[in-house]
Amino acid sequence: MWIPTEHEKYGVVIAGFRGTVPHGLSLEIGDTVQILEKCDGWYRGFALKNPNVKGIFPSNYIHLKNACVKNKGQFEMVIPTEDSVITEMTSTLRDWGTMWKQLYVRNEGDLFHRLWHIMNEILDLRRQVLVGHLTHDRMKDVKRHITARLDWGNEQLGLDLVPRKEYAMVDPEEISITELYRLMEHRHRKKDTPVPASSHHLFVQMKSLMCSNLGEELEVIFSLFDSKENRPISERFFLRLNRNGLPKCPEKPERHCSLFVDLGSSELRKDIYITVHIIRIGRMGAGEKKNACNVQYRRPFGCAVLSIADLLAGDSKDDLVLKVYMCNTESDWYQIHENIIKKLNARYNLTGSNAGLAVSLQLLHGDIEQIRREYTSMFTHGVSITRKLGFSNIIMPGEMRNDLYITVERGEFEKGGKSVARNVEVTMHVVDSSGQILKDFISFGSGEPPASEYHSFVLYHNNGPRWAELLKLPIPVDKFRGAHIRCEFRHCSTKEKGEKKLFGFSFVPLMQENGRTLPDGTHELIVHKCEENTNLQDSGRYLKLPFSKGIFLGNNSQTVKTTKESFWITSFLCSTKLTQNGDMLDLLKWRTHPDKIAGCLSKLKEIDGSEIVKFLQDTLDTLFGILDENSQKYGSKVFDCLVHIINLLQDSKFHHFKPVMDTYIESHFAGALAYRDLIKVLKWYIDRVTEVELHEHIQEVLKAQEYIFKYIVQSRRLFSIATGGQNEEEFRCCIQELLMSVRFFLSQESKGASALSQLQAVFLSSFPSVYSELLKLFDVREVANLVHDALGSLPRVMHGDESLQAVKLQSIGKTVESHLYTNPDSRYILLPVVLHHLHMHLQEQKDLIMCARILSNIFCLIKKNSSEKSVLEEIDVIVNSLLDILLRTILEITSRPQPAGSALRLQFQDVTGEFVSCLLSLLRQMTDRHYQQLLDSFNTKEDLRDFLLQIFTVFRILIRPEMFPKDWTVMRLVANNVIITTVLYLSDALRKNFLNENFDYKIWDSYFFLAVIFINQLCLQLEMFTPSKKKKVLEKYGDMRVTMGCEIFSMWQNLGEHKLHFIPALIGPFLEVTLIPQPDLRNVMIPIFHDMMDWEQRRSGNFKQVEAKLIDKLDSLMSEGKGDETYRELFNSIIPLFGPYPSLLKKIERETWRESGVSLIATVTRLMERLLDYRDCMKMGEVDGKKIGCTVSLLNFYKTELNKEEMYIRYIHKLYDLHLKAQNFTEAAYTLLLYDELLEWSDRPLREFLNYPMQTEWQRKECLHLTIIQNFDRGKCWENGIILCRKIAEQYESYYDYRNLSKMRMMEASLYDKIMDQQRLEPEFFRVGFYGKKFPFFLRNKEFVCRGHDYERLEAFQQRMLNEFPHAIAMQHANQPDETIFQAEAQYLQIYAVTPIPENQEVLQRDGIPDNIKSFYKVNHIWRFRYDRPFHKGTKDKENEFKSLWVERTTLILVQSLPGISRWFEVEKREVVEMSPLENAIEVLENKNQQLRTLISQCQTRQMQNINPLTMCLNGVIDAAVNGGVARYQEAFFVKEYILNHPEDGEKIARLRELMLEQAQILEFGLAVHEKVVPQDMRPLHKKLVDQFFVMKSSLGIQEFPACVQASPIHFPNGSPRVCRNSMPVSMSPDGARVIPRRSPLSYPAVNRYSSSSLSSQASAEVSNITGQSESSDEVFNMQRMLFNHIGDSALPRSDSNLPGPDKAVNATPSSWSLDSGKEARNTSESGKLISPPVPPRPAQTASPARHIASVSPSPTGRSPMKQGSVQSFTPSPVEYHSSGLLSNSPVLSGSYSSGISSLSRCSTSETSGCESQGSEPTVTVPNYSVSEEPVRKESKTPPPYSVYERTLKRPVPLPHSLSIPPATDPPALPPKPQLVRPNNLENSSRRTEQVPRPRPLPRKVSQL
Fold first, then answer.
1. 1636-1638 and 1666-1668 as β-strands: parallel, antiparallel, unpaired?
2. How far, in Å, CA of 302 to CA of 336, rounded?
3. If 0-12 CB within 10 Å is exposed, 13-18 middle and 19+ buried, where does residue 1855 land?
4. Which of 23, 626, 1483, 1894 suits 1688 as a labelling partner, its CA being 20 to 30 A distant?
5. CA dihedral sign of residues 1095, 1096, 1097, 1101
6. CA distance 1564 to 1568
7. Which residue stretches of the chain have pLDDT < 50?
């Protein structure tokens, strides 16, 4: 039995569960589950990631966790009780996991790896927290690291900023909005600008000294040196190195590592240097022998210097090697570091041993405690601390120091009877009063323990040595008195004994008899001479002697002998216990000299502050002792001294001594009577504020009032304790009188910045600090009233002293922040005065930053949903006082321009944000009662209207995206929640006060506008959120969009007849709302449109306005990326709503209304389909066919269905831009022509539009013409450019603008030149069918013909299409698909090549027109295309397949001609005819004969540089004829059986025979021409061809031709043949045929290499069409042998019209439907390709009429026109591309080789007799055989040649007309001008077939654009 769980509520899946049991819930490891019920080891519940799916799962798969349950029952919520940081970590890592994988998919490797490391770090830290073994401090540290990493990851992934308090996430509902804003702002600032540390530390680690010849121990001394002030700023770090240059004690890191602490930010500059002095310990001379002397001396070795600036950039330098320099003369040693810094190269050079010092440096930031936390290992291992010299910038109380710094500067000594100078060594001892040497009180530096004596280094032969060595003497205070320093001077001999001979000494006492210590500064000491063996142990003997020149001790009257020898030292005392100041000592010993008290008190102000703070407690005791002794006499002076000391502590240097004074007041102060005198003197000063001469002093007094009050209060408390509370009333009276004086003083008004206002400002700045002291003695209410009276007495004027106003506000701010204000009782007393001053400042818009801070603090104290009476009353006061001014302030601030500087802008944003958070806090705190009171408080409706307009405007501002940073989603959601709550309250007031007769359009419009932009906010679009984030938002706030949508609907329904005011204005905004993919919101909003139509229909009888607005807005919104498929369906679903209405309209009116409504919705739905497709296509990066096709579809819709001219023109230009981007210049020109056709040559002014300036219609049309001409030129469509040139030239001529006319004529001439001189490529054309419901609407279940790119063959095109539609499936057949394909939820592509059928046959059939011109008409203005499919009808004859081989020819008619505004157009109509085998044979022979004529003509006129094309063509035809060839035709059609069965084909049979004989004549003439030009190495092949030709003639029954036939150009019409720019036409097309260049015999395609163009009508391969490089006869014979070996094979015919041939290189083009239409011509005269001449006119009977079968329109239900039993071709994969070389069409027509038949004709000869070939290349394909008919042939075989005729024709044949001598004729007529081709719009519309309906142009609308 299932039992609801009590405690087992929440758990984590620890093993995956597939859920295979009934009702099982599938779970993955790591999922969190909420458990609802349990039963026998099973739980029932749901995974939190998908709470809608519930099921059962095993209990042992779940690890239970503690959790608390909210809302027990059906809607209970489970919240884990674990640490909030852990909860956040878990949910965040889950969100990151999904996004992390996406980073990998998007190839963002860097962030992918960084996030991976961060996630691992967070998991490690999470484990540490979960284990629970961390200390409190360590836990805080770990949480800090976790949150830092979480914030970093969220920022990198663009997630929301998380507000935190002490590392835990805060619930925005539990704190005030102002506090939330501060937390967010703090985290935002922390992220942006880290606060720079004020304290810095330098870590130094000595590694080694690298030197070639060391051998002696060394001392290395580091210090920091200020080159600006020329002095050291730190103590020294001293360490010893062994003979190898390594630290002597490597096991003790503190001996070779040091931390230079307490460097201020001012000391991180480039003129601070690290100086390193190196002293060697050894012999006097570095090169002396080892046995010379056993005594060791300290001798200079070298110095290194490094600027600290090198560290400022990187913070650390590892393994840094410093160069070590030595001075040239030892006397400069004391300043070598300065010389190196100044780069005085003459005074130093590198050490002889080329030494280098290896050190490691690191700069650390933060206070020393922070450094200890962050670098614990450094302090654990050990590091010596090197302090700054003297006290740090901030002196800390409790710091115990008594350090005397002595610098051994220099000495002046006599030679002492020596011939050379001495080697002087100084030995220093510290001696106490008894003459004993103090042990271990001389420190050489940190890193080395203190020693008892010091030995200076020795300078060789120098009587004036300078040492400049700094020593520290840390002597305790108790040993300081009576101690002295003794320095002994010895001469160090360099002789063998190496003795050190004493010759003098100096001494100096550390303290004088009066208690003063040795003053700081340089002291010149007397050098007392002595003998070598003098005993200096008895200090009493020499202490009586003078120690310094000019200074004598006590009563010693001995005169000092003048001596030249002196010794200089510099002393500096750093002590917290000893003083060098006599006045200080006198004050502290005031009781011994009572007569000096007044003088001592007066001199106190002159004593240095550091001396006072050293003895702070003693000084204060002294002052209060004097006060107690004689308050009458010294009261005022003691008060002044106390003020001086208090103000001294305000200095930043001594700021840290305030706690010392606080401690003194609390624990040591004993002046129980002092309060009387202090109050008295303080009041005396305040009463005299108007006396100018006292102003300065009073200012000091007022600054110190905080501590004065502290002393007063503590004194009173001590007195109360001592006396049991006596004189309490008297004390209260004194305080009241004092504060009355204060109130009077504050109430004084002064104009401008007077001295009085300065005093008021000083008082106010420190007055709030007094509150806490008063609270120690008085009740909270009393203090609050005192403060209220004091602040209330401030002058009300705002135009006084600006600084005073600022200070006044700061004082109020401190009041609000004070402990006094936090108490609700006192707050209610203080709030009115605080709000009063705030109101005044806000009204004047002054000190807004401070006002915002104060308001924030006020609201921080008012918690959310606090129902206490006091809080409600406070809200009442705030609403009445501040709501209005707060709204005005926000409006004022946000309407100002933002400041330019980044710092100012941040400040501006902060102020705005704080005011906004205050307003939101206030509104959230307001209850129903508050709102009701607020609305009732307005006296008139005008006031209420103004308020509502104001608050709606502010809300619109709050919704702006820039109001908060983009990652502040938490803040935005809170703000929106407050806004919607407030709007719900206010909408009631709107309904009650502004409807019916009081209707106000402005306020209602403002309301609706606010509601719309509220719903459209980005932060409310939950569909864009992650599932977890969406769940959290819905749980906390619900979907606020739906709430607001319902409110809109409700308010709309209340409007009644006033709805008409908002039609059509609100259509756009409401439509925008409906585009949001939220079903509930859409269901609420869409009916409003129905209502709008209804009201518009009532008003005007139609809803044209609604329709126009709806369409315009829909277009702009869809372009922005809104809306989806569901929306279209939903919008469509409201059509049924237009049923009968419960109104009084007549039935007919209702029906009309319904029909027009349905029509509108249908139109809008169709528009939406196109717009959605357009939007989806535009999201893609590159320009491709989908974008262009979609734009064309939309453009046509606007023109044909909606007739919206402006939108139409806009999309024309969008399409134009797409074409330009894709370099489709021809299409771009056609596109722009659409706009050009809307304009006329008039002077009507046009407004500025798109990129066009304001201009006349004539000017714009001229500009368009020139742009179009330029694009036609770039697209090599020059003929079209010429037409436009002529049109614009006519205009120039009519205006007599001859200058521009001349330019235009020259441009026209240049276009003619380009036609004749430049090459153009002819494009291929492809038919593409798009089937299936997954295609965009404009492609779905439609077929198109596409113009290919240059060099693009079928395989490349097919691959491009598959790349553009990666999910599409390529169909492998050409049959019309059935209904299942049309309705499939997939994409199917059907692609094959088609042949263009030129419209302008006149130009193509005329002789004498150059091919450069003809080629244009072959591939331009094409409406019709065709493709052929061979099939067998009836029984198939295996011996001769041609008997039953028919061809099905399909003609496709387009809606527009190609090229046009797109590279592809839809097929409008299909026509299907069937061609009999005989008709096909005639067409093939005609084309082959034409090809031969063309090649012969080109060769005869020397247009061919290479005769290989002619050679190969002759060889192919003759050799094929010998081996079979036309014999197959004879067998098929010349037999009696066929003639009897087909009597109607008599003429056709005769025509076929005539063509065969004509071919023989042409071959003989061709051989004659060939003989003249054939090179020597090709002679054997030529001879073979001649022999074979005679065999062929005999087989045809021909003996010889008439002798009049000679090889002369005159045998061709019009003399020499015209040069054709194309390859030789292949005899497979009426337009001519293409010659395939041959590369090698290996390039013969295999028989079964199919191409997807196998659906064309080619029947056999053109083995004869071999072109390319010259080949040897052996190769040719090899080729023939290969063909001969396959004689027995047969193949099916093929209908491919576009065989891919290698005569054009295939250019791999990017995937794009529209490429550059510029074409490159094939200059065949140079490349060896053949050029064909025009074909002479044929007799009319040569036409091959084909039987018309059907005219099929392309519809989804269309059937394949193929009959049963026909064999269908299939489209191969695009990979099967043919290599260059001999290409073979499907070689199945028997006799095709022997007769030159290479393929089935592409079209009937009657259509394009004599035309050259298309740009499309033939592709080798062979249709499949049916299994029953013939086995599949082996792939390795090549097409077989055919057998020779078995019977010949004996009768002589007359010379064909094509080879006869023409009669003399007139020169040929010029070709027609381009205008004749396309008179109006560049389209050959007049030449289209009459049956095909043309698109009817719209009536031209006079464009205003």
1. parallel
2. 9
3. middle
4. 1483
5. positive
6. 6
7. 192, 552-559, 865, 901, 904-905, 1130, 1133-1151, 1602-1905
